[in-house]
Amino acid sequence: MTELITYIFEFITTILSFFASLLLIKQKKDSQVPLGNMFLTLASSFVGIYALSTIIYSIIGQEWAVIVFLKLGMIAILMAVLLLYFTMQVLIYSSKWIKIHKLSFWVPLCTSLVISFVLVFTDYIIVIDAKTAETHFQPIPYTLFAIFVAFMLIYSTFSMYSFGIRKSTGNSRKRMQLFFIGLLFIIGSLIIDVLGNIIENEVIFDTLLFTTLSLGIIFVAGAFYGKKREIETG
Q1: CATH code for position 150
Q2: Range of the domain at 154
Q3: How confident is the model at residue 92 (pLDDT cuts 50, 70, 90)?
Q4: How far apart are CA 210 and CA 10, in angstroms?
Q5: CA-CA-CA-CA torsion for 151, 152, 154, 159, nearest 10 degrees?
């Protein structure tokens, strides 16, 4: 029963993430998706991949599956956070951001690719119980992953409030507020994940994790769901 509850919420997160991606794809005009929508569509899809990976290794219940799909899930979250950061930059500075602030694009991108390489090719996951997906992580690779994800989310949230919400008005401000709330939910899901690894109550924390993550995706998708001329600022 407890496993079923966890699967249900993982499945809901998967469906919501891919559904949000489909809604954002429909925003395209003249066969082009606005830059912010494109980043957010990919971010939402990666969250869906993360949730789906969790379902797969939980169902298979074998060591190889836990290692392979847990790594895939971690990389998916890494990419989702990177793309949310890109989305935030577009909301604040418009689609011209990449040309104007090249370092703020290339440095996080290259850093995330290096960390992804480390996650793929290093042996840092120790499977204690494959059936329950109980694992232990070697500190260095996991710490790199955790620091990058935490920093990007916190920086995105701070920048959105300081340089976006406080300096914008009207519809742009409303969209930034939605995105800001979504980021807070996603940060909350990471905190819940950490607490779930400390406190032994897997079902409650997994349920809260995927519920909070789903709410985060809904809010950030809502920030970009609209006509193209209403989406980008600047």
Answers
A1: 1.20.1070.10
A2: 2-231
A3: confident
A4: 6
A5: 130
Cβ distance 218 to 169 under 8 Å? Answer: no
Q: For the segment 133-171, what is each residue's pLDDT rounded down to a tens digit? A: 888 888 889 899 999 999 999 998 898 888 888 877 777
Six-digit token string for 170: 């009207």
> Is 111 in contact with 155 (CB distance < 8 Å)?
no
Q: If 0-12 CB within 10 Å is exposed, 13-18 middle and 19+ buried, where does residue 128 land?
A: exposed
| Number of other residues whose CB lies within 10 A of the CB of residue 2 | 11
Domain count, the chain: 1
pTM (2 d.p.): 0.85
The per-residue pLDDT for range 41-81, each reduced to its tens digit, is 899 999 999 999 999 998 998 999 999 999 999 999 999 99
Contacts for 220 with CB less than 8 Å, ≥ 6 apart: 40, 43, 44, 84, 87, 178, 179, 182, 183, 186
The rounded distance, in Å, linking the Cα atoms of 163 and 77 is 25
Please compute the mean of the pLDDT values over residues 97-106 and round it to a whole number.
88
pLDDT at site 198: 62
Tokens of 96: 């011209």
The HSE-up count of residue 171 (CA atoms within 13 Å, CB side) is 12
CA of residue 115 relative to chain centroid, distance: 16
Separation CA 23–CA 26 (nearest Å): 5
Q: What is the mean pLDDT of residues 182-202?
A: 78
